[in-house]
Write a structure and sequence with these properties.
7 strands; single chain
Length: 119
């Protein structure tokens, strides 16, 4: 175990378990964030907190939430959002790449700021 992993595990040990919120399309998986609420509200909160950044990478967000046996949200372009591993498991096994590593495909302006497409 690396020193970074050890420090991160020591830090998260003081808090409730948090779960990955993961977006997936055709086997490509990216981490949106973590939430301690493994529920519709927890998932929606993580998606909303990343709203402008996420929308700029998906050419806007058209979100449909479906909740059945497992919580699933469907985003623009066929991306699905589900809960993944616990944060502890992710640290030990290796975290997924952040959605922020995807290229920005459109310009989004909101009260929180502007995210512009890369030229």
């Amino acid at each position: 175990m690396t020193e970074v992993q050890t420090k991160r595990l020591a830090y998260i040990a003081r808090y409730r378990s948090r779960y990955e919120v993961v977006m997936d399309l055709d086997g490509r998986r990216y981490r949106i964030g973590y939430t301690s609420r493994k529920s519709k509200r927890g998932m929606v909160a993580v998606i909303c907190n990343c709203g402008v950044d996420l929308a700029a990478r998906l050419a806007g967000i058209d979100t449909e939430y479906r909740f059945g046996a497992g919580a699933v949200a469907t985003l623009s372009g066929g991306w699905t959002v589900t809960f993944g591993r616990t944060e502890r498991e992710a640290v030990l096994e290796g975290e997924l790449q952040s959605f922020r590593d995807l290229p920005i495909v459109c310009t989004i302006t909101s009260p929180g700021g502007t995210v512009e497409a890369e030229q």
